[in-house]
């Protein structure tokens, strides 16, 4: 099960005929934190390994249509990671950051920025919560600068976690 949760910005109303007003408010309102969660039939340790080992990351990272063509991970507080995504149009998008918290196999906190970096750095927290023979993966993405970027992140994280689940269940990227 995949759940994306968004707390609407204060004062943001939903309803028919409010689209233009909502667009203006979204532009001025703080961007809500994005939380995406999914329960995957795997141990926290197995999920943590798939998330933090570059060789495994290359097999599942990215939403549908995006291919991870390179990844490096220096898994330690202060260590850096860098991931290259080939988009459907052939462009290469690099994501990079630094690990702030590494609590194997339950939690990662790292900065997130597209290269070249231009603007504030975002923060991602990934939690692996055991639930019997499965584990709930919770991705919390903070500091997203705009609503449209937040929407793209939501699609990206949902696709990444779906790819991770499929990789662990079938050994392949997509069903």
Write a structural description.
With 175 residues, the protein is α+β, with helices and mostly antiparallel strands. The chain has a single domain, classed as START domain (Alpha-D-Glucose-1,6-Bisphosphate, Chain A, domain 4, 2-Layer Sandwich), CATH 3.30.530. It contains 4 helices and 8 strands, in the order E-H-E-H-H-E-E-E-E-E-E-H. The chain has helices at residues 19-28, 44-52, 54-60, 147-170, and strands spanning 2-6, 34-40, 67-73, 80-86, 92-103, 107-115, 122-131, 134-142. A hairpin with a 6-residue loop joins strand 3 (67-73) and strand 4. The radius of gyration is 17 Å and the shape is globular. The model is unreliable at 1-22 (pLDDT under 50).
Considering the chains and any ligands shown, give keywords for the structure.
about 180 residues; alpha+beta; about 30% helix; Alpha-D-Glucose-1,6-Bisphosphate, Chain A, domain 4; 4 helices; disordered N terminus
């Amino acid at each position: 099960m995949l759940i994306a949760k968004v707390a609407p910005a204060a004062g943001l109303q939903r309803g028919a005929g409010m689209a233009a007003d909502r667009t203006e408010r979204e532009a001025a309102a703080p961007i809500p934190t994005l939380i995406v969660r999914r329960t995957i039939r795997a141990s926290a340790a197995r999920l943590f390994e798939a998330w933090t080992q570059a060789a495994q990351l290359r097999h599942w990272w990215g939403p549908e249509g995006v291919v991870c063509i390179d990844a490096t991970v220096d898994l330690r507080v202060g260590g850096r990671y860098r991931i290259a995504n080939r988009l459907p149009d052939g462009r290469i998008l690099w994501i990079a950051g630094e690990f702030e918290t590494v609590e194997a196999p339950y939690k990662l906190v790292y900065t997130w920025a597209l290269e070249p970096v231009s603007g504030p750095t975002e923060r991602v927290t990934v939690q692996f919560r055991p639930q019997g023979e499965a584990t709930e993966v919770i991705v919390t993405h903070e500091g997203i600068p705009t609503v449209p970027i937040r929407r793209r992140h939501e699609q990206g994280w949902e696709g990444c976690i779906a790819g991770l689940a499929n990789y662990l269940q079938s050994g392949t990227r997509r069903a």
